[in-house]
Amino acid sequence: MAVYSILKFEDFFQPQKDEEYTIITFFDNMIRRDFLYILRLMADGKGCMLCDSVGYDLPDEDDEENELKDCIEVWEDCGGDINSCCLSYTQFIELLEIAGRIWLNNNMIKNNCRAINKFDEETINLFLNSIKKRYLG
User: Which of 1, 41, 85, 101 has the most CB atoms within 10 Å of its CB?
Assistant: First the structure.
């Protein structure tokens, strides 16, 4: 029997507000695209546009007047209507950890339930540790 559905954030959260939907859309897009590449960018302190309508911005470290320097803004542009949500680094990293587990699980399902690729798991952990050092110091 073919597996038509993979785990998505919608399976865990029932969004009530635009901000919650924006977070779900953002992480769902992240795990459907090159998840490891996106983690690498984050570990290097770079923002990223995941696709034409979804992305995240990191504050400019040199901007002393930036009120959002302790946050990461995730955003989604729905036909010109931009929804965004600012997450603390702690919240963002917690969601990255969940996304990593989902991404590994999805790869296992796609590969007919073969063992999770240890290299991928170690790579995710390496990037997450770099991200934690950079933002939670």
Answer: 85
Q: How is residue 66 written in tokens?
A: 């930036």
pLDDT tens readout for residues 88-135: 899 999 999 999 988 888 877 776 655 557 778 899 999 999 999 998
Rg from Cα positions in the chain: 15
Place of tokens 């989902």: 102
Supply the DSSP string of 47-108, one letter for each residue: -EE-SSSEEEEPPPTT-TT-TTTTEEEEEEEETTEEEEEEEEHHHHHHHHHHHHHHHHHHHH
Q: What share of the chain has pLDDT > 70, as a percent?
A: 77
Token pair, residue 76, equals: 């989604």
Q: Long-range pairs for 2-5 at CB < 8 Å and ≥24 separation?
A: 3/109
> How many whole angstroms separate alpha carbon 116 and alpha carbon 96?
18
* Mean pLDDT along residues 71-92: 87
